[in-house]
Request: fold
Amino acid sequence: MSSIAARPAPGAPWWSPTPDNWRLALIAAAVIIPGSVFVLPVDVAFWVSLAAAGAVCLTLVIRAWGRHQGPLLVAPALALLFMMNIFPLMWSFGLSFFHYRANRLAPPRFSGLYYYEKVLTDPQVWDRLQTTALVVLLTVLAQLAVGFLLALLFEKEFPGRRVLLMLVLTPMMLSYVAVGAFFRYYYEPTFGLLGQAVKAVTGETFILLDSTAGALIAIVFADAWMWAPFVMLLVLAGLVSVPKYLYEAAEVDRASWWRRFWTITFPYIRGLLLLALLFRTIEAFKLFDIVFLVTAGGPGTSTETIAVFVYRMAFQYFKTSQSSALAYILLFVVIVLTNLYLYFVKQRNAEA
Reply:
């Protein structure tokens, strides 16, 4: 009864100071949190901001109590999601506007867009982006080509198909650390399998990672070995969904293999290929583990991707604010690429 009495009467203004007026609490928090950041000391601003956010949550709970039991039941899960995912993202985004280093006790000082300007004008960043673009292009093309050929192979039934399919899918189930460590030893010139095989033929020690081209080939091969089965699964799902009577009709018309593929098979797998292209481009753009474990960005910095560069900036040089700004620029790039993909897919569906 007390909670019902505390609610504003129908038609009451939004500024009514009642315990369940979440709109007023949200507006107050939107004013208090930025104001405390700019006016109060950092340690005081933290607790004031936390109290303002807690007040908003409390008003939402009071508002939902007795009215919306469903949302209230999932509120603890949403709160945990906020604390574990959303809050760290918001916190790191806020740090990109301050002078702050994680290895120093000095409080953050507001810097505005200084670090975004610094990142966008840094030639090292553009060099790492060029390296990343090259790695993305090579590894995605390799994965699409190998995955497509594997899908064509496993489309047909043959003895031992299931066992061989399980073996082909195994790399996709491994962790990046395991794959990186495996290929690090595989490329090792003294006792690695590749070095020993080449030495048995040529009699000379073979070091694949001593050149930029060799290091790029090593990264592309390792990543394609791991994720080409993923592309194969998507393409294979499209291949097995093609109606058999279409192929039978094409055989009656004596259509060539290429004609059957282009007019019957490709339309069924085109959407899945585009989906694989999107997923693998996003994952390759933030490729870190394989590069860090296999080449460590070498020789020199010739294979250092933007993800490795962000890691070094954040955890080796402790340029926390600058690395946060760069990370959010990369997030923006990924969002733009995803939206471009969705736009082209929508345009294609509209034309169809």
Remarks:
- Residues 99 and 109 are 5 Å apart (CA to CA).
